[in-house]
Structures are given as structure tokens and as C-alpha cells.
Amino acid sequence: MKSMYVRASVSALCAALLAGCGGGDDGSLVLQATIYGLAKPGLVLTSGSQEVTVTPSGSAATAVTFPNLIEEDSTIDVKIKTPATASKCEVDAKTVGLKANYYTARQVVINCTTNSYFLGGSIAGLTGEGLILNNGDQQIAPAAGSSTFTFKNPVADGANYGVTVLQQPAGQVCTIANNVGTMPSGDLSNIAVTCTKA
Amino acid sequence: MKAMYLAPIALALALAGCGGKESYTVGGTVNGLKFSGMELSNGSSKVAVQPPADGKSAVKFQLANSIDYGDEYEIVIKQPAHQSCGPALSGGLKGSAGYTQTIDVTINCSVNAYSVGGPVTGLDVAGLVIINGNGTAQEIAKDATSFTYTDAIPSQSSYGLVVLKQPAGKSCTITNGTGVMQDAKVETVAITCVPA
Hints:
The complex is a heterodimer.
Chain A: H1 2-21, E1 32-36, E2 43-47, E3 50-54, E4 61-65, E5 78-82, E6 87-91, E7 108-114, E8 116-117, E9 119-124, E10 132-135, E11 138-140, E12 148-150, E13 155-156, E14 160-167, E15 172-177, E16 180-182, E17 188-197
Parallel strand pairs in A: 1-7, 9-17
Antiparallel strand pairs in A: 1-4, 2-3, 2-5, 6-7, 8-13, 9-12, 10-11, 10-14, 14-16, 15-17
Chain B: H1 2-19, E1 23-24, E2 26-31, E3 38-42, E4 45-49, E5 59-62, E6 67-68, E7 72-74, E8 76-78, E9 83-87, E10 94-96, E11 103-111, E12 113-114, E13 117-121, E14 128-132, E15 138-140, E16 146-148, E17 153-154, E18 158-165, E19 170-175, E20 178-180, E21 190-195
Parallel strand pairs in B: 2-11, 13-21
Antiparallel strand pairs in B: 1-6, 2-5, 3-4, 3-8, 7-10, 9-11, 12-17, 13-16, 14-15, 14-18, 18-20, 19-21
């Protein structure tokens, strides 16, 4: 007699626990993704029927939580619906396709890189040696007679640039037009360096 | 009788097996070394550590003199040019031989960085934004009389401060905004604004 009550209450407890665990539509686990290298807006992620739009945090890693909880032991299936503007984004394959638990549901990783393009332009009248142009810590030293230049390292889409003369060539003074701006979605070659006799 | 001889032999063997090492070399790894001039010493034993050829690999070092079990060591760093180096773990340059199996000290180096800035004149409106290359866009406040650029510049790196955005009704120019950072902060970059 006694054991029947115990059994009944145990099964009631079980049912309550299961309901609490999300036997219904929603699960019990917070689904979170961490996006590395995100610099641009527009990234949309999906998990089943739910989706979330990610805004760059401004730091190296951006964390985002999906609106709905997911079920324990369901398969983690985060996909990229739309990559961030001017970026390439990929889901780290090791972090999806796993059975959902408290840990795996918070460890989805997505890596993004912003497209980058070359920065350069034209040079007129350079007859002396020694010209060094710089964009911050990036330098380039066009030889005498050069008519174009391109910095070695590409610049991310949407990043600012500001090119200055770090060192004037022997016997000449060079000035730069169009030297400041924001990197477009493509190579930029309208920076104009003009050198004249000092 | 037989057992009486065996026991001390076995004990001696066991001791040799676990503590046979009597002499310890003092060495380790230096990360992030980019410039020459680093010297590490322990007492009278010294070694010069040169930056790696590729400018980024870790460098191993070993001091010439070994030390005995139980001896204290303390590695003293003479800093390389333009950098600051220190133990990866606080207090990690000191110890006693035998406390760990090998003496393998990790030293991390970073390039010293200094601020650039200077006087501002004539800026009586908001909206002036300056940058250094692809660095942070920084707005200079209305009525500022001086500024310090937000990103510190590593020693021996070039910089070039330019106006990204002019404030309404003003034309601002930057003088002495370009150079190569030396080992001190720069306070001579001048921003001058005049009516546009």
C-alpha cells in the first residue's frame, strides 16, 4: 500500500521534471554562438526554424544567443543564412552536428573574415630616391621613376586609411591628394602622389 | 645474510633512480623578442639572447654554468632595445634547483609603445576626426587645447596622423603628424584649425 503511494508520487515527480525539462515545444538549453573576426553587420544565423541577426560587438569575439531554447540531445544545427556584409563567414564544423547538452549548446563557433583590398595610386615626377609613404605602420618605398604604388598588405573593407609621406626623396618634395578615406569593396588606386623639385 | 646485503643495494639503486640528477642547467624560452641587446644572467653566468630570424618564433636559451641540487637561482634580465621582457609567471625567474625536474623559465617580451599627441588651436566646434592609418578614428572634442591619440604606437613603427573628417565650418591641418616612433612619447603633433 505504502509503496503504491511512493510509486505514484515518484512518477508524478518524474512527469513534473520532464515537463520542466521542456517536453513541449521549447527545450531547456540556451543555444549560443561565438563569432570571431566579425567587423560588419548583416550576419544571420539559423538553428532549425529560428534565426538570429548578429551585430558586431567591436571586440575580437561577438557572442549571440538564439531566441528559443533547444532540446537536450537534439542535434546542434547552426547554419549561416546570410554572411556579414563584405565578409566570409564559416561555421566551425567541429562545433556543430553534436548532441546538445549544457556545454555543447554554448560552444558553437563561427569564423568571419572581412574582405580586404589593395590600397595604392599613382606617382608623378618622382626622380629622386628615398621616398617612403606610410599608412600608419605600413610602409612602401617607391623607387625613382615609379609611376604607381601599392601597399603590400591589403586593407579591410570599410576600414579607414590615411597615407602620408614618411620620408621625402632626395632633392624633391612630394605631396599626396586623395590620401584619406574609407576602404571601398574593391582595390583602391586613386591616391595621387606628385613630386616636384625641392 | 643474503637479504641483509640486498636491502641497502636496492635502496641505493632506488635513490639513484629518483634523484640521480645532481646538476641542473638553467634555461628557458623567450617569446616575442624582436630587437637585440637582451642578456640573461644567473650570478656570474651570462648569455646574450638574439631575436629569431623570422621575427616571431620563440627563442631557447641556456646559461653556461649548471647549478647543483638545492642551489638557488635567480635569472636577471638586461632588457633588449625597445622592449620590456619579464617572466610569464610572476616570480618565475627565481627558484631552487631540484624543486622541478628541469629549470625551464618562460620570459615574454612586448614592444614598448608610446603615445602621440600635442597642442590643438582654433578648434571651437565639434566633429574633427583624426586617424593613424587603419587605426582608431578619434574625435577631438570641441575647445580641446591638446590631444593624445588613443592608440599607443609601438617603438620603431611608423605613424601618420591625418584628418579623416573636418568639423563644420573649419579646416584643420596636422603638422609633424608623420614619423617613426622612438623610445619616448611624442608631444609635438600640432592640430591647427582655421575658418574654412
